[in-house]
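G., before I forget:
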Amino acid sequence: MRIAVYIAAVLLAILHQDFWLWDNDTLVFDFLPVGLAYHIGYSIAAAAVWAAAIKYAWPSHVEDFAEGDPKAENSGS
Amino acid sequence: MTQVIIIVCYMGLLIGLGLISRMSFRGTAKDYFVASQSIGPFVLLMSVFGTTMTAFALVGSTGEAYKAGIGVYGLLASWSGLVHAAVFFLIGIKLWSYGSRYGYVTQIQFFRDRFESSSLGLLLFPILVALVIPYLLTGLLGAGGFIKAITAGSFPDLFTETGGAIPNWLTSFVICGVVLFYIFFGGLRGAAWANTFQTIVFMIVGIITFIVISRGIGGPVAATQAVMEKHPELLTRESEFTKLHFLTYGFVPLSVGMFPHLFQHWLTAKSAKTFRLTVVAHPIFIMIVWAPCVMIGVWASSALMPDGSLVVPIKHPPNSELGIMIGKLTGPLLGGILSAGVLAAIMSSLDSQFVCLGTMFTNDIVLHHFGKDRFSDRQQVMLARGFIIAIVAITFALSLAEPRRVFTLGVWCFSGFASLFPIVFASVYWRRVTRMGAFASIFATIVVWLLLFAASDYGKDRTFLFLGMMPVATIFTASAAALIGVSLMTQPPSQATIDKFIIPRPGGIY
């Protein structure tokens, strides 16, 4: 599932290049240019992909690392 | 006058918030610099979002959409929604874990340890400061241009040289003073609280602005129809975008991975789970702020006043489009509230950047080179405050010079940060990356950035592209190539360093 989430993120990056709407002046709801409407939808899709990442690809090993050996704390120079 | 009174009241509220945050200040350096790692999900979301949304997002996006059309949203807002959240998720959580485990408060402390090099920190410090200053400038120029536009004609006897508008220098001076006040008392906690408050204010006010302005120009349908008749190219991406230009803008949002002030905000998180809300809500929040601003900018190109004149005259100062729209289309009371909201967005970035620079100077220069034990916590906080004042003075002085468009200035600044991104990415994911690779990457960034910046006539050419691409694509590629090439040719880091920083995921892949 983790791999599927990352594939979805890459697909979304590709879908950013919406060349098929480049010169399309159709209006959604009579005021919103379709090129802008698409990218508003894109923002919502980005939120959905990262919500899926949190559910299916959460880096719990990083949390464990942060809570690790207390002796290592404050050793930053 | 009413607008100015409302803005003054808003500044008073922020000063009050600074005094309240003082009561929570624990008096330690760690509390001043990273709020004792006590920040929860909601405040982290609001402070990270407030910090990344500045004059660039409000004043800059409106002004750029006025010239270039709806494509501005795709250039930055939708790319940022995807890329910022990716950086928070893939880089931010790991950096937080290092900070939590090893006690870092600055980005340079991490890089110094990761690359086993004290001189790398010494090299990075002036570069990061030099890149943050233009970022600060975008805030001051945006605020100055906005307030000047909205107060045009309000004080004809007092400010004769600006036609009665509050001059840029006065706006910059007041904003710097108020931000300094609340961060002096509360440090990063004060900044986080103020950011939360200001982010709520500017998001609500942004929606109100959109509704009021669209009504003032006859409603969204009529406003868009006017653009369709006069500037139809602004409703598509035929105005000034090429597909390669649009694609390579995707490099710009990588800058968040190297923002030192964002690094510091990440370290305030109470736990890794605190990031969850930020990762998911950030793209939606960007959409809520950017989409109305872009539409207002597009409408501003063609909207008419009842007397048939353009709402935004063809000749107008840079960074003033939003201010002119609000000034002409709203009453003084609402105009004042909307202005306070715009200033909220601008100040919510300045505060974190000020605190961050003070933190870096204190920890990365003074304490690292002169010894931590020589300074008490109180002295460390005083050192940070002293450096912040110096930086504010420099930025204020620079803001008095000839203003560039906020958007252009911001893009060059972000391009520098984004081109350093390969270093932070490799530092958490690539065990083979070396100190010399990091040095090579930094030098490649400096050289190529300077060459391309000069080729753009030092930012004056707003539409400058290199090989048809955003300059950042070339700078980033040079930086990444230098990092990889030199790392492979030089001695790998010690096993102890690799073990300290590379966190293996159960199953083998990080």
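The CA atoms of residues 190 and 234 of chain B lie 41 Å apart. Chain B has one domain: 2-501.

More on Monday.
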